Amino acid sequence: MSETNLPARIRCVALAGNPNSGKTTLFNALTRLRQKVGNYPGVTVEKKVGTCALANGESISIIDLPGTYSLSVRSPDEKIARDVLLGNVRDTPRPDVVVCVVDAGNLERNLYLVLQIQDLGIPVVVALNMIDELPAKGISLDPTLLSTFLQAPVVPMVAIKEEGVDALKLLLQNGFSYQHKRSWLLAPAIEEQLNEIVRLLKHETNHKDIFIFFKSVALISQATLEANQRALQDMGIALSPTGREELKKIQDRIAHLGAHVRSTVIEARYQWIKSVCAQASKRLVTTVAEDMTQKIDAVVTHRVWGWVIFIGVMTLMFYMIFTIATYPMDLINALFDHVSKWMLAHMPEGFTRNLVVNGILAGVGGVVIFLPQILILFFFIGLLQDTGYMARAAFLMDRVMSKVGLHGKSFIPLLSSFACAIPGIMSTRTIESPKDRLTTMLVIPLMSCSARLPVYTLMIAVLIPNASGWKKASIMLLMYFLGIIGAFIMALIFKKTLLKGQAPVFVMELPPYRLPSWKSVLLQMFERSGLFLKRAGTIILALSIVLWALMTFPQHPGQSRMEALKGSYAGQLGTWMEPAIKPLGFDWRIGIGLVGSFAAREVFVSTMNIVFNLSQDASAENLKDAFALAAWPDGRPLFTPLVCLVLMVFYVFALQCLSTVAVMWREAGWRWAMFQLVYLTGLAYVISLLIYQAGLLLGFH
Amino acid sequence: MVYALSQVACGATFYVSHINADAGLAKRLQEMGFVRQAPVVKTTDQGTVICQVGHTKVVLSREIAEQIFVQAVAIPTSSELTLDKLKPGQKARVVRFATDDQSVFILQEMGITHHEILELVRVAPLGDPIEVRIRGYELSLRREQARHIFVELIP
Question: Using CA of residue A645, residue A647, residue A651, residue A655, what is the dihedral sign?
């Protein structure tokens, strides 16, 4: 099974590689920001495609595959990576060449993926990255020898300094001779059965499928007949009845060889790798001095200092989010204020002005104001991930997480969810076990995302207007803790009931500490924030207009503003809801806010802005004062301290975010999305009810 | 599943389950290394069987091979050392895996394979997970998974 071919003009290249191998850095260096970020159809695995300009003026498209250790299809990431390579993904061309990024300092494990990709028969180029770290590690490596063994071009590089990137481009431009040769071999008895499967599949597919060898290896690794059926279906092979019969016979013979065939395949690859590494690389020093990573880890994962640093890092991050971010936030606020004042002054009074100022500007402005916080959060997450600290945080936290049946890897998604549940849900895809992943996704909305911040800020300002900043901050923290505790309790309940399963498999690499690539940290920050802004510009803009319309129509001239609002569609809905929410201490106006923020929480503030701008005849200076004036028809104040508190608690628990529902739908199916919506809304209602009624009994009001 | 050593294929690793022979023969076989859980690889089978048991190569007649029963999966015995029992700084060689479920393949693909040497680097402050160095990099896994990996200490 050896053939030589020179790829005719290379048009499409896939970038593969282990996590932490510098794949994204190389992708950025090759494409120079000419890239598009989206999702693969049907899943939320991020899809990045870019164009790379070659020296001869032509360009090739580069697909950045998700970082994986293997193509064994245990996680959505691995499945997508494999399906792209097999050419089975809609709207994604099958790559002509795979550039596999390899961390030169971690050669053995990185080469495992290279060998798997070579089984596909697609020409592979090895990008031997981070060769500059080798001297410090006391390793010498001969790329030419490595290339001879692998039968594939090896390009040594330091992607972060763009060294070797041009050599790679030149190689892709000129093409290269490629010879596919099986490197690793199995024990003869198993090899024989593998050849049987290859023969069978070749016959069954009329020799048309070029990935028969890869698929046969996948089949021989399956322990049971059902697993085999699933694998066949997954790889798009339909067998004839005789073929199925034949496969069953081979399977029986394999079963006789013992259940270790899969391990045998893995070990055969590693054995070959070991011998290649032994010949192509040398350890110059026999006892490597405790390197930097070890020294840092001795402190960062220390019994005492580990926690001090962990809490310090988290505190710093939230301090930045809640203090530094306020300056640009004030600026944005002032800007929107300025624009609406200018509109009020320069536009003729009437329908359009009303729509623009009270609908669009109030709605969108209320969301865009979070941009600084989101930027800071994504900056921190990118930084922590790039330096390698995130893995240590998961290492520290795993025990805590495992107490509630979660995973050390759930920590990162939960942390991201303090900014926004959507990147949080998307980042659960690194969790291999579907049940652990689902549990994490189900509780993610309980982490107070930044969209709750304005609700909390507003309600705290109404609750204790003249208290010191510390008091306000501690109430805010209380809300965050309430969410965290709720998430842990719910996770425990789900793991004990609906999603009962084995103890989760927790295997995580602790990458060496590296200086962050500022370029990729910033790039990621802007990409993610861009997605957030896009949401503000589309969903929230549309909702703002819809809500404004609901609150403005039908119009009856001559009414007071209060009566007009109550008579509007939104007012009717709020009034209709009032009996249900009255036991929580909410009136129909808060009802409008709840309805409005069902699509996105941050809309609550803008809705309240609209509601109270419209309904208060005495025009209040700001929303806070308007709330202080708001009252029930009998004159009792509406926003008593208890109601403010209950409202905040409601927002801690309720799932009021269409985008989260949409992402859940895509990730876990509509049943789980609906389940999440119902359980969180129910939880919010019940807990708010309990607090309000208990508060009343205790004499608060 | 238990097979007679005469039935199994050459080249794959099996573990001794039991010996179905008279006491005298059973004792002799045990002295040759066919103790419970000892790994066996049959290398040739032409009626007469040649196999590797532990570190010794043994030639057996077909009749005797029919009385030795082996299984594909090792069963843990409590007396042996598992990865989770190592202390920081200790090095050990992977001997075998106690289960053959999905979690083992994940570990194997990450490089924890038979005969590979690993070192326990540290234990997380709360006692779990642990960090091991294998194939020149650091990997963290839970004690629950480490429990399934049998190792022998390297002095």
Answer: positive
* Nearest Cβ partner for A510 among B14, B111, B131: B131
Domain B2-71, what architecture? Roll (2.30)
Q: Is the peptide bond before B155 cis (omega within 30 degrees of 0)?
A: no
Tell me which residue range forms the domain holding A414: 305-452+500-517
In a shared domain, residues A548 and A607: yes
B111 to A190: CB separation less than 8 angstroms, yes or no? no
| Same domain, yes or no: A175 and A192 | no
CB < 8 Å to B120, chain A: none
* Cβ pair B142:A398 closer than 8 A: yes
Amino acid A123 reads: P
Asked if the structure places residue A424 within a domain, the reply is yes
Nearest alpha carbon to residue A616 among A584, A648, A600, A638:
A638
CATH of residue A171: 3.40.50.300
The per-residue DSSP string of A451-472 comes to TTHHHHHHHHHHHSTTS-HHHH
Q: Are residues A205 and A341 in the same domain?
A: no
**Domain tally, chain A:** 4
A622 pLDDT more than 70: no
Q: Which of residues 75-134 of B touch A (CB under 8 A)?
A: 97, 100, 102-111, 113-114, 116, 121-122, 124-129, 131
Is A482 a member of any domain? no
A680: its two tokens: 């969180």
- Give the three-state DSSP class for A185: coil
Q: Give the nearest partner residue to A270 out of B113, B124, B144, using CB atoms.
A: B113
**How does A568-591 read in b/e, with b if 16+ C-beta sit within 10 Å?**
bebbebbbebeeebeebbbbbbbb
Among A204-218, A364-378, A512-526, name the one with the lowest average pLDDT: A364-378
The shortest C-alpha distance from B33 to chain A (Å) reads 21
- Return the minimum-mean-pLDDT range out of A142-151, A266-275, A684-693, B67-76: B67-76
Q: Which has the closest alpha carbon to B143: A266, A399, A21? A: A399
**In this complex, do B12 and A264 lie within 8 Å of one another by their Cβ atoms?**
yes
> Closest Cα to residue A178, out of A117, A233, A131, A111?
A117
Whether residue A552 is found in the same domain as residue A637: yes
The model's pLDDT over A228-286, given as tens digits with 9 standing for 90+, comes to 788 888 888 888 888 888 888 888 887 777 657 788 888 889 989 998 998 898 876 65
The set of residues, in sequence order, having a beta carbon less than 8 Å from that of A289 and lying 6+ positions away, is none
If contacts are CB pairs under 8 Å, which of residues 4-43 in chain B contact chain A? 7-14
Per-residue pLDDT of A192-225, as tens digits, reads 888 999 999 888 887 778 888 888 888 888 767 7
**Do A198 and A173 reside in the same domain of the chain?**
no
What does the DSSP 8-state code read for residue A444?
A: G
Q: State whether A581 and A686 are in the same domain.
A: yes
Q: A568 and A622 share a domain?
A: yes
pTM equals 0.78
Domain final residue pick, A180, A212, A236: A180
Cα–Cα distance for residue pair A433/A472, rounded to 1 Å: 40
Where does CATH 2.30.30.90 sit in chain B?
2-71, 83-154
**Region B83-154: CATH code:** 2.30.30.90
Note whether A567 and A513 are same-domain residues: no
**Residue A263 belongs to some domain of the structure:** no
Whether A654 maps to a domain, the answer reads: yes
The top-scoring range by mean pLDDT among A114-118, A227-231, A558-562 is: A114-118
Q: What is the pLDDT of residues A565-618, one digit of tens each?
A: 778 888 888 888 889 988 988 988 888 888 878 767 877 877 777 677 655 444
Interface pTM (ipTM) of the complex? 0.78
Last residue of a domain, one of A258, A291, A320: A258
pLDDT number for residue A617: 45
The H-or-E segment that residue A117 falls in is: helix A107-119
